[in-house]
Amino acid sequence: VRSPLPFGPLSSSSFLCVFQELELASVFVSDAQYNRNIFFDTSPRAVRLYLLYHRWFLKVLLYFFILVNLSLAVFEEPAVFPLPLWATMMVELLCLLAFSFRLVHYAKVIPPDKFWKDPKNICIIVILMLTLVDMIIYGALKATNYYALRWSRVLRPLLLVNVTEGRQLRRAFRSIRNALPQIFYVFLLFMFSVLIFSLMALKLLGKRGLQTIDGAPYFTHYLEIVFDLYVLVTTANSPDVMMPAYNASFVFAIFFIVYILINTYIFMSVFLAVVYNNYKKYLKEEVRQLVRAKRHKMVRAFAVLQEVREEGGEPVVTQANWNQVVRLVRPNIDNAHRELLWSVCDDKNQGKAAFVQLADLLNIEVITLKSRPHPFHSLCPALYLSAPSRLLSRMVHHRAFVIVYDIIILVNAIFIGLDEENPMIANSEWVFLALYLLEILLKLYVFEPRTFFSRHSFWNWFDIIIVVSALIATIINSAVKISGGYTSRQILDIVFILRVLRLIRVVDSIERFRAIINTLIRIGPAILTFGQLIVVVYYVFAMVGMELFKGKVKFYEEDSTDPAKAYCGNPLLRGTAFAQLNYCKNNFNNVVSSFILLVELTVVNQCSGFATVTHVSARIFFFIFHILVVIVIINIFVAFVLEAFFVEYSVDKSDLHTSVERKITELEVIFTECSSRTSVSSFFSLLSSLLSGYRTVDALLQRMFEADLDPEDLAEDDSPEAQTGRNFGNPTFSSV
Amino acid sequence: VRSPLPFGPLSSSSFLCVFQELELASVFVSDAQYNRNIFFDTSPRAVRLYLLYHRWFLKVLLYFFILVNLSLAVFEEPAVFPLPLWATMMVELLCLLAFSFRLVHYAKVIPPDKFWKDPKNICIIVILMLTLVDMIIYGALKATNYYALRWSRVLRPLLLVNVTEGRQLRRAFRSIRNALPQIFYVFLLFMFSVLIFSLMALKLLGKRGLQTIDGAPYFTHYLEIVFDLYVLVTTANSPDVMMPAYNASFVFAIFFIVYILINTYIFMSVFLAVVYNNYKKYLKEEVRQLVRAKRHKMVRAFAVLQEVREEGGEPVVTQANWNQVVRLVRPNIDNAHRELLWSVCDDKNQGKAAFVQLADLLNIEVITLKSRPHPFHSLCPALYLSAPSRLLSRMVHHRAFVIVYDIIILVNAIFIGLDEENPMIANSEWVFLALYLLEILLKLYVFEPRTFFSRHSFWNWFDIIIVVSALIATIINSAVKISGGYTSRQILDIVFILRVLRLIRVVDSIERFRAIINTLIRIGPAILTFGQLIVVVYYVFAMVGMELFKGKVKFYEEDSTDPAKAYCGNPLLRGTAFAQLNYCKNNFNNVVSSFILLVELTVVNQCSGFATVTHVSARIFFFIFHILVVIVIINIFVAFVLEAFFVEYSVDKSDLHTSVERKITELEVIFTECSSRTSVSSFFSLLSSLLSGYRTVDALLQRMFEADLDPEDLAEDDSPEAQTGRNFGNPTFSSV
């Protein structure tokens, strides 16, 4: 690997040059902090462009355009809100332009050879080209009134994967891709089992002249049996599929029980085991690579900043340089925090080993704790420290305060459950609102507001938002009611939802529940990654599904008197279970319906209606969807939740801390002692190191696997030669 | 702990006494080998009784009586095959007598204070008493024609748990019991979430005047909503439960999607995580205890056998004593095998450390490999070694042979799929049978029969059993057809099943499949434990369900013209989905139907029909069943399969071997070399150490956790004082 960095001594450079070097170093540190893996050009101009590339407003703009591009499906044929073709085309062109700009910007930042080697970029260019071609063909065909297909719409979600720095998303896709070969073999075996069972069912049941409840012949066609038995694995048609055979003889029930045991329980568990195992294995490998890349970047930053203080001594980074880099990386850091970081880093030697930890240190949130007295205390100490005020404070701090409010919440729950037509109950709502407001005001009086509103006080924020919104909504509702004499259904809905949500607060009072809820909140951001993943897959299936099934099933409003309502507007559905169960709104007629239908298909895969209105082969669409979403993605999701909970359990029990956190915890003690001695006005404490460590998904993953990581990866002795000896550049992360 | 053993020097005892000591030692070794944990009296008489207690025929008899006792439900009211009351009562009395005998036998074996301290025994006595009381009351009431309830039938499966040495079963119950507190908190949180969502649904949807497809008001009653939403978690009523709201506005679909995401996906994953984590934790603890108990027993055996050979030297066990103990423990062991074991044990010193390993060594299967020439070779070497014979042998060994037969199997599969009415295809069956027979004969000609029929050649056994049975069944079928001119449906069914099963053989040819299948075969015995567990739980629910719901839903044969057939013989079911879908045979009218229905409920919990025919509160029965079986037991089952596969993956990759296996593998090399030099006629080799290690469930568990076990548990330095110092007697395994 050719190093694009001049590693020579830098002390004789001009001020501008020194600043450029500091900037370069800060970019390396910042990349290490956020685990960015872009092999950028190190020329000053490229570094500037690179900094611009990572500005938040450009990223927000990019996400905005992706969102616009994806949501075009709402306005395009078949549309929820139809817009003329030229309008959607113009917007799409604008989006493509934005993506092209972003790509050009990226191309300016990294060396050309790297740019063309990265399949991610090729992928984006191909997608942009194909979209453009498709738009031209589609526009031309539509203009001449021919039938046209917007096939490039399925490519749109791939932009979400490739254009953005959606590292987590790409990683999730990679773990799926990596797990696929293993899953594939289990899947083959599973399908083999389904095929064998189907053959047996055909031989055992096909000749008996049995009938389904519709009067159709039962189990006489092989492929039908295969499909029915496959659906049985999803439990969607249990026990219907087995009833005709079971009615004939209970012996046949044994066949189905064995089938369910093997295919639903054992094979599905094996799928989960395989997915989980692969997921863990490859994630571990990726995290290892991330840790290596982070160290490598910090070593490069160190190489830029290093100075040899004494002859033959180890190169070090001076505190002045260190301060400037930290200021560049985090402009809004306060001095005390920076000093704390320096004192953590400055552990005996300021050499490379200490410097390398900086990236992790910057990721740890340090918050000021109770250093400030309450504003009332400063403003009016006599009143705030008076006996009634102190009593109030003791009261609010008391455990009984929490219990009283829990009881109030429970009583409130009962009142919500009762009929709100009763005026007494309708008015009681004001009492409860007043009580909740009082609670918040009391807490604000007693607790220091900045602590109360600190970023991690989830429940305080939750309380305030819910109570204040409920207050506003209730006032608007009453105002509307008094002025117009009618009740707005929408506002009332919001009021109801807010009232019920308030009840959730009771969970926080119970220790055991809090632990579970905290874990769930902590894995929340990671679940969002899966949300993106699901959106990408759903979007592709929605686009294909809309082309295949649009308009085949129609929904008629409740008050419609059209006779076609009874069979969803399609005579083929007359008398089918699909129409009888009133599933007409489960259709692919627009993108919103499609998404909701796909969620339903994820839960229970029932697609008989669509096979009826088109062709039996339409089942293939639902079959592929089930394999991809339920067998692969849902299992990866379950694997993730499992792993997160296991980490939580092991962290609770053992002292699994990152080395840096350990050091800070030690230091904290010293600091506390020092501050009490020297009366430093503000001292730092750490938020529970767990919470802070989990701030980013990467940190969570790193923690997940740190216990298993090779000690080599965290070893301190990596000279640049050793690094290059290992032929270790930026790890290449391929696109999907 | 008082040691009941005289630890003094034993060399001066009489022959009888020496034999008694050998017997005692062999009992300790045997207990250690099979992980039995019974604190028996060490007096010679008790040891004799103890040996009798563990005789296989007494155990078989016990299982037979348990089976009879459990299957009484088939003959009792409501019966599949009704028998007069006196007959079932007599049989039950006989069973109770047998269990009492067994208990008395047990009481004679162990010290009285131990007997009365063990809750297992108290439990058995109480069950026997209660059953007797119930039988008397029931008999008296029936004789006077009053309504009577056989409530003690629910206690029967508890005998399966407590009377037998069902260690795995009791362990499974214990892991459930241990996991319950943790599961309980998650369950509370989950129920809280369901309740909150239900309240929100009531407020949002209850006042809109929506209707279900039956025309009933939608979401107006709180408890109904709670139940509907709970069932939605099981996915049984998806998407039906959401359709009325979704038809009103697609916004409400969001409510259901959020609900499904949180409760179906996240909470169910959390349940799995909690169950898995607890399962693993407690199992690890139990296995640790097992390992300790095993070592302790071996130390006691050593204490009985030890002799101090030289002054001040370590006590040792002489080879003569060692041989006699091994002969007592395994009477059918051959000399060469015993010599091998001795040479493994005899590693430099014959002290305690080496002796303690004996229990594990006895569990390892050692098989003789290819030591014998083929019988034909001995009988007629000239012919067997002739050129055509050698060619044949090479042919059978060739990879093409396997491929040719795989192709034959696939062609056979197509022929099976085709219509067997066609005489050409019907006759082709004879060709295929001949081909399969030829394959087996060729293999028997080429491979040494004992190797071919060795215990672990699963596929060879499978082949022979399937092909020979198919041959017999096909011949009988043809004979019946020719003689009587009709075809027996039953025989034909068996022929079909055998034909299809034969196709499974193709799986063995593909390496990847073989690995998965082997894991599944290996965890098979452990799955049987879960089978017992499920039977216990199902039996209890079947008994309760039969009392609650018997006769409420009737099934009419297909050709019945009774008008009641349309509503399952219960006017309450007129027009319900239950009757329309023809679920009449899903009833609790006898024990077989009940079991099949409970399996269906495990897959998809649909119980609307039973609530209709009795009372809404009947849902509680189904609710409890779902919690217990699906949330707890199925999750433990999934946890077990996951763990087994993870162990498999880690064993595949790493060199996770027990210390004993490692030693044997080393020794094997030496042995092989020795035998080639000294031309020992037969030498030993090990079956793949993996296979042998997995022979028992305990061994599998021990392997699962050995990597995590405290080194202390496997340390070699445990003097009797250290043992007693740790106050370590037999670990007490409480009953359920």
Question: What order do the helices and strands come in, and which of them pair?
Answer:
The structure is a homodimer of 736-residue chains.
Chain A: H1 15-33, H2 44-53, H3 56-71, H4 85-109, H5 112-117, H6 119-143, H7 156-162, H8 167-205, H9 222-233, H10 243-248, H11 251-305, E1 307-308, E2 315-316, H12 319-329, H13 335-345, H14 352-356, H15 358-363, E3 366-368, H16 375-379, H17 381-384, H18 387-397, H19 399-417, H20 423-446, H21 449-452, H22 458-484, H23 489-502, H24 511-522, H25 524-549, H26 577-580, H27 591-603, H28 608-613, H29 619-653, H30 659-678, E4 684-686, H31 689-693, H32 697-706, H33 711-714, H34 720-725
Antiparallel strand pairs in A: 1-2, 3-4
Helix pairs in contact in A: 1-11, 1-12, 2-4, 3-4, 3-7, 4-6, 6-7, 7-25, 8-9, 8-11, 8-25, 11-29, 11-32, 18-20, 19-20, 20-22, 22-23, 25-27, 25-29
